[in-house]
Every structure is written in C-alpha cells, then in structure tokens.
Amino acid sequence: MNIFESMEKLGHEELVFWYDKTTGLKAIVGIHDTTLGPALGGCRMWPYENEDDAIVDALRLSRGMTYKNAAMGLDLGGGKAVIWADSRQDKSEALFRAFGRLIQSLGGRYITAEDVGINAEDMALIARETEFVGGLKETSGDPSPATALGVLEGMKAAANIVWGTESLQDRTVAVQGLGHVGGILARMLVDEGAKLIVTDIHPEDGRALAADLNAEWVEPQDIYGVAADIFAPCALGAILNDATIPQLKCRVVAGSANNQLKDARHGLDLLKRNIIYVPDYVINGGGVVNVADEFHRDGYHPERAYARVRQIGSQVSEILNRAQVERIPTQEAADRLAESRIHVLGRVYSTYVPE
Predict the structure, then answer these.
(1) 35 DSSP assignment
(2) Residue 253: CB partners within 8 Å, gap ≥ 6?
(3) pTM
(4) What CATH number is given for 3-62+76-127 in this structure?
C-alpha cells in the first residue's frame, strides 16, 4: 500500500512504527489530528493476517477517534495504537513495557488506553514506562462498562425514533461479539427485557454466556441474516459492506464496534433500505468519556463521568433527527457535527496566547 497517500487521504499527522527485537513487539501508532488536544485512543492487540491490515486498522481507528472525541465534546485529538500479536498467547511483561517506552517517546502527543485484546493489568505494565496512559485500575479502570452503557442509551434513543418508546422490552437484539463490551451489553439488554440472538468468534466462551443469558446462539456467519429489531455489532470493523447489508433483517444498527461501515457509501445503502444506522463513534463514546475524565484538573470522578456517558442518548437523538430533516445518512450528520467543532475550536486555538 501507499502509506503517505493513505495518510493524506485520511488527514493524518503521523504514523509511527516500532519494532523491539527482544520482545518481538510490532506496534503502530496512528496520530490523526491534534487540533483539539493530545491524541487519545486505545491500544488494540490483534493477530492481523498481514502488515497492510495492521496499518489500515491503525489509520481507520485513529481517524475515528478524532471524530469520536470531537463529538463527545472532549478537548482531545484522535489517535490509536495496534500491536500485531495474539492477545491469547503473546502477552508478556517485557512486551508491554517495551510498548510503554514507545508511548513515552512520543512526548505526550498520544495517550493510550484499553481496546480489543488489552485489559487493565496490561495497562498497569505499560504505565510503568510512561505517564501517558489512561484506564488504570486506580483511576477510571476498564472502560468497557461505560462503553456498554453509552451503547444502551443510544439504542434507547434510536428505539424511541423508530417505535415511539425507549423501552427495549421484548425487542429482539442480535449481538455480534461477546467480548469486554458485548458481554456487558448483552447482560444489560437482558435486564431491559430484550430477547437476544448472539454470536462470537470464540464459541467456547460465547456459548457459555449465551446459555447463562438464555440467548439464542447462531454461528458467526449467520448473525447478519437473523430477524431482529436491532443489530448490535460489537466486534471488529468493516462488517457493514456489500455482502452483509443485503442480509440484514432489522430496523436499527447500533453497536460498540469501531468503523462498522466498510465505506461511506454503505451508510447510504442502509438509508435506502430504511435501516437506521447509529454512528459508531457516537454511540460507543462512553469509554473514552470515562477515561478522559481522568484528565480533569481535580482528577477522576465516576459520578461526573457516568452522568456524561448517559447523555449519549440525547446526542444520538439529535444526530438521527438531523439526518431525517436533512435527508442525509446518519454518519454524515455525525461527521458534520464533529467537523464543525474541530473547525471552530481550531480557529479559537489559532489565537496566540503567551504562556
């Protein structure tokens, strides 16, 4: 792939590659935009098929974080890190400490936190080598519960627009992915009275949770075609594409996965099929809101953080209503909101203020 061409197309400032021979660490940090502040975004550990896939993920995820942080009203830019490894067998103290030294070398331009394949214990090891880390146990902790709560509030907002009520009682929700966020969300949905159809790429864990929740289990490739009121993608990105969208039998797509649309045109495809797509970087913003609260001058306050997470439903309502009025895809409405904030505050920050 042409890396510089990709960076120019997506608007990136920096792409950092790091290899540590001792630990075998292969890491990429994408810093997309720091107009609003240092780039905050999680670290993903995943066994990519090739390095191009890892690079594309770092680029797409970091750009998504710029829009997410802007949409959440945070004074933070967007960045993301990926570690090319299998989180189920390749973790070690030395590897994470080597990664921490990479983050420290960036001098605060990027702040890391948890994402797919990374937990609070891993972050503690990273924090032994860098101060630029969030989501530690002693502060905001695992962001997954906050992310799941934001998704639930966004689902309720979408349900209110489609069915005239926020209640999810007896609604069928198809959950793709039962990891950190998807598993918590599934339990929340059961508490709301929803009926679940679930799947996961790790069936040994997923089937056990499905049985515990009295949920219907389907194989991963079958989740797109099940009849459901809401489809909740909570795994990896680019799952809404030419092959999967024609299979969907739902009215709403609302889940925690990042970059759910493989291409922007797929948002229009959903609109044409009368399926409401809740923009992923808005509905899944609860985790970053929770982590960002650590950087307030008075430190982390969970009550303040979770109160802000619960406002995601209102933001989703605003974006969905705007999309309907302007007859545009929902992700375009969300993009306009985020880009407006970046543009306006970028102009404000251009004013020189002596230190």
Answers:
(1) S
(2) 230, 231, 232, 233, 240, 260, 270, 275, 276, 277, 278
(3) 0.88
(4) 3.40.50.10860
107-120 pLDDT, tens per residue?
Answer: 999 999 998 899 98
* Tokens 């990479």 belong to residue: 102
Q: Round to whole Å and give the CA distance between 261 and 211.
A: 30
Q: Examine domains 3-62+76-127 and 144-285+311-340 and report if their fold is the same.
A: yes
In the three-class reduction of DSSP (H, G, I as helix; E, B as strand; rest coil), residue 267 is classed as helix
Q: CA 255 from chain center: how many Å?
A: 9
Alpha carbons 15 and 217: distance in angstroms, whole number: 40
Model confidence at 350: pLDDT above 90: no
**Terminal CA-CA length for the chain:** 42
Quote the percentage of the chain above a pLDDT of 70: 99
CA distance 12 to 254: 27
Over its C-alpha atoms, the chain yields an Rg (Å, rounded) of 19
Distance CA 90, CA 183 (A): 23
Going by C-alpha positions, the residue among 133, 23, 32 that lies closest to residue 83 is 23
What pLDDT was estimated at residue 29?
98
pLDDT confidence of 1, banded at 50, 70, 90?
confident
144-285+311-340 maps to which CATH number? 3.40.50.720
Q: Coil, helix or strand for 227?
A: strand
Which residues are part of the catalytic machinery?
80
Question: Token pair of 159, please?
Answer: 């349900």
What percent of the chain is predicted at pLDDT more than 90?
Answer: 88
- Cα separation of 334 and 64, whole Å? 11
- Once rounded to an integer, what is the mean pLDDT over residues 304-309? 96
The mean pLDDT of the chain is 95
Q: Where are the domains of the chain?
A: 3-62+76-127, 144-285+311-340
d(CA 171, CA 188): 13
Q: How confident is the model at residue 44 (pLDDT cuts 50, 70, 90)?
A: very high
